[in-house]
Design goal:
Two copies of one chain form a homodimer.
Chain A lengths: L1 H5 L22 H14 L2 H11 L6 E2 H4 L7 H13 L3 E6 L2 E6 L1 H10 L9 H9 L1
Antiparallel strand pairs in A: 1-3, 2-3
Helix pairs in contact in A: 3-5
Amino acid sequence: MSNQELVVLGRNDETDACCPGLLTAPLDEDQAVELAKVFKALGDPVRLRLLSMIASRAGGEVCVCDLTPAFDLSQPTISHHLKLLRQAGLIDCERRGTWVYYWLLPEMTDRLASILTRPAAEPLPDRAATATAS
Amino acid sequence: MSNQELVVLGRNDETDACCPGLLTAPLDEDQAVELAKVFKALGDPVRLRLLSMIASRAGGEVCVCDLTPAFDLSQPTISHHLKLLRQAGLIDCERRGTWVYYWLLPEMTDRLASILTRPAAEPLPDRAATATAS
C-alpha cells in the first residue's frame, strides 16, 4: 500500500511511452485526453469489427476490398471508420495500385492491454486482516 | 496458422463470457455492439480520470465527495459520467447516508485486457520463411 501512495500523480516519464497506468494511479489530464481518443475509436461496433477483421487476418494485412463486403455500408463510410482507427494509431495502411491494404499496429493494442491489466493480484487488505484475526 | 483458420466466425460459447477475442477472430455483430458500449464509456477524458481515481484508490472505494473536487465540473455532470461507467459494467456503487461510494469492477477491465492481448507471440510466417531461406 505504501508503494501505491508513493506513485506521483501526473506524468511518469519512464513508463509514459508504454502505460500511464489506468488502474494504478490517477491519470493526469493530458494522458486522459490522449487515451480517450483511442478508446473513442474503439467505441463503435463497425470499427471494432473492422479492427478484429484486420487483426485476425493470418497473412497480417487485409485489402479494403475484402473488408467492405462484410458490411451493409458504403465504401466511403468504411474508409471513414478505417481513417479513425488509423488516426488512433491502431492500424496503418498502404495503397498498392487500386486498393489500400491495412494492418494492425500491435504496439497500441499491447499498450491498452497493459494499462488495463491490474498489478500483481493483491489480497484486499481489510479482509485479509479480518481473516487472520478470526 | 491452420489453427487460426479453424476459428469459427461468430460466437464461441466456451470463451464468450470472458473474451470474444478482438485480435484472434472477427467479432460478430452482437459482440461488437456489446463491446463498443464499454469502449465508448472509456472514450472520454473525464470518465477515464474518474475510473483511474476509483481503480487506484488503496482502500478499494471512493466517496463521490472525493472525486468531484478534482474536476472543474458540477456534481450532476460528474454523477452522469459515473453513471455511464456503471452502465458499462466498469464500476459499481452504494449509497451510505449522504454520499455515494464507488469501486472498480475488475472483471470488466480484466476482460478488456484479455481481449486486447495478442495470443502467444507468433513470428511473421513470411519473414521467418525468408530468413530461413537466405
